[in-house]
């Protein structure tokens, strides 16, 4: 299989635009990794942050965040990403070990290092879709660390606003076998039509017994919490205007669409998992996280 992402070793894809959000998540995971009460460990995350000029000065350790959880960006928001990482790690491990699927697709994979750090059962294949420049930067860093994946890994450089459905079977994905899909921190950057296409495509390529987890933001989140400390701190401390990067058009009801297609879905707030793990962000006033929902869906076997 041709790994086209390796041909481009530039860092432009993570230095600006939506690619820089992958560095934000990586920095959060680096900080989480070093917390004494860490929810998830990602030893690769800090290397991504340090390798990109856009993020080289960002914190990668809690001791570099003097205000701790009171820092809206590197405290509370970073902890949110730590919790999300843990919850979705658990979803993936449950889906492959108990559910039996051996194909995993990470949509908007960014600097997700799960292929390198989770204990995958034999025979697993991880497909990673993101923009070519982002995957190229990822490979540049991982190659420098001589990192070895713990499962077969297939980068699929594609823009998810386009017609990407054919790329997966072309990369070796088998629609006749059960699959697990992860859409973490992606959908709010896509136009509504691209989100609908993504959900329709996942459904079409998923055999019964497949599972999907994705994150959405309720429409009211964008309108009600635009001056929340979380968005303001992200803009002022590191120059990322998340609201500017989000697609502002009305969102489709993707959980409802899947239910209509016969999937069984459950919708959670992040705070549900904070309570379960006894660690993580709790609700507060004017909270940009209040509209976030984590959706888990299964395509039932007949
Ligand atoms: C916030 S990051 C999340 C990355 C990863 N899922 C994680 O949680 O670490 C969002 C990712 O979506 C990717 N992305 C956004 N729009 C995209 C598009 N149109 N096509 C492909 N990837 C896209 C970005 O390049 C970035 O890597």
- The third-level CATH topology is Rossmann fold
- CATH C-level class is Alpha Beta
Mean pLDDT across all amino acids: 93
Class inferred from helices and paired strands: alpha/beta
Tally of helical segments: 13
Elements, N to C (H/E): HHHHEHEHEHEHEHHHHEHE
Strand order of the largest sheet: 3-2-1-4-5-7-6
Number of domains: 1
CATH architecture type: 3-Layer(aba) Sandwich
What about the largest sheet?
A: 7 strands, mixed
Rg calc:
18 Å
* Low-pLDDT windows of residues: 1-12
Give a quick rundown of the structure:
The protein has 302 residues and is α/β, with parallel strands linked by helices. It has helices at residues 12-15, 20-33, 45-51, 72-97, 114-117, 132-144, 167-170, 192-205, 219-224, 229-238, 242-245, 254-260, 270-277, and strands at residues 103-107, 125-130, 152-157, 179-183, 211-217, 264-268, 292-298. 40% of the residues lie in helices and 14% in strands.
Identify the notable features of this structure and list them briefly.
302 residues, Rossmann fold, seven-stranded mixed beta sheet, disordered N terminus, binds S-adenosylmethionine, methyltransferase activity, methyltransferase, transferase, SAM-dependent_MTases_sf
SSE topology:
Blueprint: H1 12-15, H2 20-33, H3 45-51, H4 72-97, E1 103-107, H5 114-117, E2 125-130, H6 132-144, E3 152-157, H7 167-170, E4 179-183, H8 192-205, E5 211-217, H9 219-224, H10 229-238, H11 242-245, H12 254-260, E6 264-268, H13 270-277, E7 292-298
Parallel strand pairs: 1-2, 1-4, 2-3, 4-5
Antiparallel strand pairs: 5-7, 6-7
This protein binds S-adenosylmethionine.
Pfam family, one: LCM
Enzyme class: transferase
Keywords: Methyltransferase, S-adenosyl-L-methionine, Transferase
